[in-house]
Amino acid sequence: MSTTTNAPATTDPRPRVLTGDTPTGRLHLGHYVGSIQNRLAMQETHRCFFLIANMHAFTTRPEQPADIRQDTLEIVKDWIACGIDPERSCVVLQTEVPAIAELTWFFAMLLPFNRVMRNPTLKTEIDSKGLGDQYSFGFPMYAVGQCADILAFRPESIPVGEDQVAHIEMCREVARKFNQVYCGVDPHAEDHEHEERGGVFPVPSAMVGKTGRLIGTDGKQKMSKSLGNAIFLSDTPKQVKKKINAMYPGQSRDPDEPGDPDINPVFEYAEVFIEDESFVEDLKARYRKGDGLGDGHVKAHVIEAVNALLEPIRERRASLEGPDGDERVIEIIKDGTARANELAEDTLARAKRAMGLSFFPRSLS
Ligand code: ATP
Ligand code: MG
């Protein structure tokens, strides 16, 4: 364990990382390969903040507070089961970091409304989640809020899946704009120079995982908690088997007929989850020829690989089930959030100073 583990977040010299998940369901394989693998690696070298974006869960399901509460706990259990270590990393609850909500307001004024609405990730979500024209005012606002989630921690990088890159780009624009408008940073300054030239915020970069967009079991959309096409990290071996066996292989063929692995989403999983690359290449070559290789065979190999990945995760998760597990998770969130608030309050104070808003020191008690 690093000696700087328990250093205050404001003085810890390690570069910082911020990322998180929305509690709209449990975590799935897409999260694992898109972001969690990178988080696990960075725990060793960076000061990590992992945020549960529970405020943002309300943007699409304001009438389901009990589900959001339960999913908040489930997501933290998934993180810990994957190997996130709450001693080394801060698990942060968004609704208990007031600086995030305050920064969201300030940032909303730095982004043209049309710029937010043109964000391609929001457009895709409106479409894929069937939000039509009935989404709340708060829904697009979450993209602005995410800029605040990130910048409150002044991180160097943000491990995310591909769909988040457009959001991170907006966050980078906000950081530059804030630094230019309120800190006098030259508009021609390079991104890496912003802090040394007096900017409050760094211009952080997205770090996309090895698989930036894992396809869902529907073979069409990205795997997503909200779309009913996910294999969850907490699924049982039987559930994994059932979901993969039900996948449409993109074509209808007999085992002796040539097939096209490139249009078969099961092969995408084979490439991601079967470690032996030459074995996967061989499977693909046989599939192209026909060679008696049925879709059931390919699926069986994928099921085995996915279950091998999930087995240790399931075991660790089992120790957190039940009310005792919930209590432990709440303690973890409380501790991480307290440490996160030290840094977020420091950031907010710097931002307010730059904006001429530091009339007197803040005291809320
Ligand atoms: P929702 O359906 O509620 O939007 P989600 O499944 O998209 O949920 P998020 O909480 O929005 O999950 O995303 C958390 C993180 O996981 C983000 O960094 C996102 O880019 C990444 N991620 C989500 N789905 C995938 C995927 N299918 N492949 C790779 N990364 C993913
Ligand atoms: Mg999402």
Structural description of this entry:
The protein has 365 residues and is mainly α. The protein folds into 2 domains: 16-213 and 322-354, HUPs (Rossmann fold, 3-Layer(aba) Sandwich); 237-317, Tyrosyl-Transfer RNA Synthetase, CATH 1.10.240. Helices cover 50% and strands 7% of the residues. It is built from 13 helices and 5 strands. It has helices at residues 29-42, 54-57, 65-82, 98-108, 113-117, 120-128, 138-151, 165-183, 237-245, 265-273, 277-289, 295-318, 322-354, and strands spanning 16-21, 47-52, 90-93, 157-160, 205-208. The strands form 2 sheets. The chain has a 3-stranded parallel beta sheet. It has a two-stranded parallel sheet with strand order 4-5. Strand 1, helix 1 and strand 2 (47-52) form a beta-alpha-beta unit. Helix 3 packs across helix 12 (295-318), helix 4 packs across helix 13 (322-354) and helix 9 packs antiparallel against helix 12 (295-318). It is globular. The mean pLDDT is 93. Bound molecules: adenosine-5'-triphosphate and magnesium ion (MG). Adenosine-5'-triphosphate is lined by residues 21-22, 24, 30-31, 34-35, 160-161, 163-164, 212-214, 222-226.
